[in-house]
Amino acid sequence: MKRSDVLTWDEYFMGLAHLSARRSKDPSTQVGACIVSHQHRVVGIGYNGFPNGCSDDEFPWAREGEFAETKYPFVVHAELNAILNSTQSLQGCTIYVSLFPCNECAKAIIQSGISRIVYECDKYADSDEVKASKRMLKAANIELVQLPYAIELQVSRKQAEKC
């Protein structure tokens, strides 16, 4: 008899997004994204970090202070990195992301043709950026699916119990 306690596709690809997030050197927020085709093939993956050629030792990671002394004007978000790293057309694809996309990432998601967003955390739901994001995504008929935030912990706990 086959196992019945396997991950769903959504859990599996969210796990890849979490794994990608672990590449981020951001000391406060690590976000990962994974873009998947209808055939369940990964076509793009990314995490939040500085653009190629911009040293993470020379650019700031601060969250507060003068704008040019913070990370905000320099960091590429996980969603945009995954889109830029994609290997094919993203028309009709799903993006898995650990944190709900901001308004800038929402624009890139819409323009790329992604039709479904699976996310976990929505801690900035009351921010103007996320409100604008949700307005655009709704207008563009992008499907939004929130997964339980504890999936990563559940998977890790189950694996630990088997060792």
Summarize the structure in short.
This protein has 163 residues and is of the alpha/beta class. The protein contains five helices and five strands, in the order H-E-E-H-E-H-E-H-E-H. The longest helix is centred in the N-terminal third of the chain and has 13 residues, at 9-21.
> Which band does the percent of strand residues land in?
15-25%
Low-confidence stretches are 159-163
Total helical elements: 5
Helix content: 25-40%
Order of helices and strands: HEEHEHEHEH
What integer value in Å does the Rg equal?
16 Å
**CA(first)-CA(last) distance:** 22 Å
Secondary-structure-based class equals: alpha/beta
Overall average residue pLDDT: 92
Overview of the structural elements:
This protein has 163 residues and is α/β, with parallel strands linked by helices. It contains 5 helices and 5 strands; from the N terminus they run αββαβαβαβα. A 5-stranded mixed sheet has the order 2-1-3-4-5. Strand 4 (116-121), helix 4 (128-139) and strand 5 form a beta-alpha-beta unit. Helix 3 runs parallel beside helix 4. The chain is globular. The relative contact order is 0.16. Residues 159-163 have low confidence and may be disordered.
